[in-house]
Amino acid sequence: MRLDLALAQKFGLSRRSAREAVRSGKVDVDGTAIDEPGHDVTLEARIDFHPDRPRRRRVRTRLSVLHEDGDVIVVDKPAGLLTVPTEAREKDTLWARVLQYLQLRYGGRPYAGIVHRLDKDTSGAVVFARSRDALHALQDRFRTHAIDREYVALVAGTLRERGVFDADLVREPGLRRSVARPGQTGRQAETRYRTLELFPGVSFVSVQPQTGRTHQIRVHFSAAGHPVLGDRVYGNGTSEKAAPRQMLHARRLGFPHPRTGEPLATEAPVPEDFESVLSALRSRKKSGPVRPGRSPKR
Q1: What distance in Å separates the CA atoms of residue 77 and residue 72, rounded to the nearest whole number?
Q2: Which of 61, 153, 226, 289 is 20 to 30 A from residue 76's alpha carbon, by CA?
Q3: Which of 66, 64, 53, 44 is nearest to 23 (CA)?
Q4: What average pLDDT score do residues 5-33 get?
Q5: How far is CA 143 from the centre of its chain?
């Protein structure tokens, strides 16, 4: 049943009043504010109407919101945008856009706690906390890797169906990372992958990092001889020319809600630039199957 219809029936409102109440952010479904009148609700859903709640504003913004409630906001970061400012104090960052969005929508001085980051040229799902309690709960989960994360990537070479990279990582001068060499003490890192589709000289993979080290996915695949296409740092001189930017996208992000404990799952659609490269590979794909390669050396 549509939310506006269910609201009208439960609280004796006209359909017009019910639609306006939903659009104004005055209606919760199972504890989460929903502002789409056509949202489908089950007969078992708990619907709460808060007529005195301040009106929620509609905001035109450069921000793509995947999920929003009073505790967290999950957004889709475009490639080329920093998650947070560097020492250069950049003004246009994902964090700045989230704060602007929240300020325009709710007024006052919004809070957006930084939980994790994506590299500048990586796109996809990023969560910010809307309260300090939520921030601490989410940071603990990311610290212990008790979250569900999936990336998709286009990497050079032909990979086998599944694999694991578990080489320790060390910090190089600047921001670079590398696989630890014999005698070096590095930080433990583990990256699992599954091959989704194969093209001549390129593999489309689903990646699930089991740890959250800086540049982990890019370094592990590069060290195995399969750098991410378009990676201008770890591309080994060839793959960085194969795409307009590094073909790495954080597609899925899930975790227990920091307040309710209920599962929260979000998915960021593959962006146009990634899809364009993928479509070009498919159009050039030769007839006949491309067989997975041998297990990469580690």
Answers
A1: 15
A2: 226
A3: 53
A4: 87
A5: 17
List the domains of the chain with CATH numbers: 1-56 (3.10.290.10), 57-284 (3.30.2350.10)
Residue 146's closest CA among 186, 177, 115, 168?
A: 115
Q: What does pTM read for this prediction?
A: 0.76
Task: Judge whether residue 56 has pLDDT over 70.
Answer: no
Burial 57-78 (b: 16+ CB within 10 A, else e): eeeeeebeebbbbebbbbbbbb
191 closest CA partner among 294, 263, 298:
298
The torsion of the CA quartet 79, 191, 65, 135, rounded to 10 degrees, works out to -120
Beta bridge partners of 209: 191
* Closest by Cα among 59, 60, 37, 62 to 47: 37
Instruction: Judge contact between 65 and 74, C-beta under 8 A.
Output: yes
Catalytic residue, chosen from 4, 71, 76, 119, is: 119
Residue 168 annotated among the catalytic residues of the structure: no
